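Sample 1 of the test manifest.
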Amino acid sequence: MDLCYINGSFVPLKEAALPLTDLIIQRGVGVFDSISTHLKRPIRLTAHLRRFEKSAIESGIFLPLTFDEMVSIIREGIDKMNSEAVIRPYITGGDVFDPESLTFTAPRLFIIFQETHKPAPESYAEGVALQPIDADRFMPHTKSINYMISFTSQSKDRKAFEILYTPKGEITESSHSNFFLIRNDSLITAPLNRVLAGTTRELVISIASELNINVKERCPLMEELLQAREAFITGSIKEILPVTRIGEIIIGKGKPGPITSKLHRKYLENITQWLE
Amino acid sequence: MDLCYINGSFVPLKEAALPLTDLIIQRGVGVFDSISTHLKRPIRLTAHLRRFEKSAIESGIFLPLTFDEMVSIIREGIDKMNSEAVIRPYITGGDVFDPESLTFTAPRLFIIFQETHKPAPESYAEGVALQPIDADRFMPHTKSINYMISFTSQSKDRKAFEILYTPKGEITESSHSNFFLIRNDSLITAPLNRVLAGTTRELVISIASELNINVKERCPLMEELLQAREAFITGSIKEILPVTRIGEIIIGKGKPGPITSKLHRKYLENITQWLE
C-alpha cells in the first residue's frame, strides 16, 4: 500500500490531503525529489536529499526538518513498504509568502512512498521515442513541481515516452531525465549549468570513466542526431533507457546499441555500492 | 469569511482540502481564472469563464460542470460573501492522466471566494516598479497555476510589485497583468499571440478607442523605455495601475502620467456596463 508521511505520521497515501490555501495548489509553489530503492535500501539518498534541500533554498523555502530527521523518516517508510519503493519528499510554499524576507514562512513537508513501477521490459529491448520541443525547462536547476508542459506537449507524438527540451536546437534534458548522445564513441551530455544535476547522470559519467569511454559535457545538437550511433536517458527509476527515435529522426540503426547496454550492465553491477 | 465551493457544497476556505494524489500537487497540473466583483456583481464573468474553459481544454482537462452551472455557483458564492470578492475557479489534473486519450480523466473543480484586497492607494498615487526578467511566460495562452518564478525572481528587486517578462528585450506581459507602454501618444501592448488574453487588456483597448487614443499591438521593446512617457499594467483586481520604474529605468518623469489617469477614470465610469 502506498503511504504518505505528513503532519508527523504515516497514513495511507489515498487518505492524505493538503489545505487548499497552500500555494503549491494555488500558485504551483513546491519542489520535490525522487529516490529509488534497491534491495529495499535507498540509492544515493544523501545526494538526493542534498539536491532537495538546494531546490527548496533556491525557491525561498526552508525545510522544517533536519537532514537526519528526513533520513530517519525515509528509512522508517521503506521498512513499512512491502515492495521496492519510490520515495518522493515534497516541500510546499505553504499559505504565506513574506514580502519582507521574500521567503515562504510556513511551508509544509510530506513524503510519498509508492511501489516502484519501472518502464516496461519492451522499452529497454526496443528503445523509446522522445518528443522534441523548442523550449527551455522551467528553472532547470530546481526540481519544481511544474511538469504541466510535459503532459500538454506530448499530444504531438502519442508514442513519445517523454518530451525532450531542445531550445534553439541545443538538447538540454528531457522532462523527467537527463539525455546522452553517443557519437564517435563519445558520450555527449548537457553541462550542469543547463540542466538538473541528475544523480544517475553523475553515476553514468563515473561508469563511463571506469570503462574508458570519453564524456563531453556540452549540449548535443539536434543537427548532429543523424550522425549519432546511440542515445539514452537516465533517471533514478528508469536507470539507463535507450532512445531510438527523436521526433521524426531515427537514432543509429533504430535499435538500442552496444554502448548503452554496456553502461547499463555496469550500472547494475555497481548498484550495491550506492545503497545507503 | 473566505469560502470554497468544492465537492458540491460551500465550506469555509480554511477547511477545504485536496487529496495529495492530485496532479495539481504532485506535478503542477491545474488552471484557474480570477474574477472580480463591483457592487457585488461579477465583472465580465462570461469572458472569464470562456477563458477558463479554454485554458482547461488546452491542458487536456475537461470541465465537469457546464457554463451555466458555474455561473450559478459563482452567483450563489457572491451572495454568501459580506464584501466585494475575488472569485477563482480552479480545475486540476486529478489523479489520472490517460496516455491513450492524453487527457486527465478525473479532474477536480473548486471555486475560491475571497475578500477583495486592491493594491494600496499609494501604488496608484506613486506608481509601482516592475522587475524585468529575460524569459518567456510558461504557456502564455493558458492561465496555469505555475507562478513560482514570480516569487523566486522577485528577490532581485525587493520593491518590485511584479516581474515583467522581457524575452530578448521584447516586453510581453508581467506575472499577473498585461503591460502597456505609452509613447508618442500611442498605447503599445504585446499582441495576443504572445500573452494571456487579459479581459482588462481588452477593455482598455476599447476605452482607448472611445478616447481616440491610438493602440499598437506589438511588443514594446526594453530599448524604447527611455523614450516612453508612461506605462501601466492591467488586471481584473488592480484595474489600471501606473508603472514608474522598470528595473533601473525610470519611466517618463517617474510619476503616474495623465493618459494613464484618463484611462483609469474612464474605466471606472464605464465599469457598470460590464457587470453581469
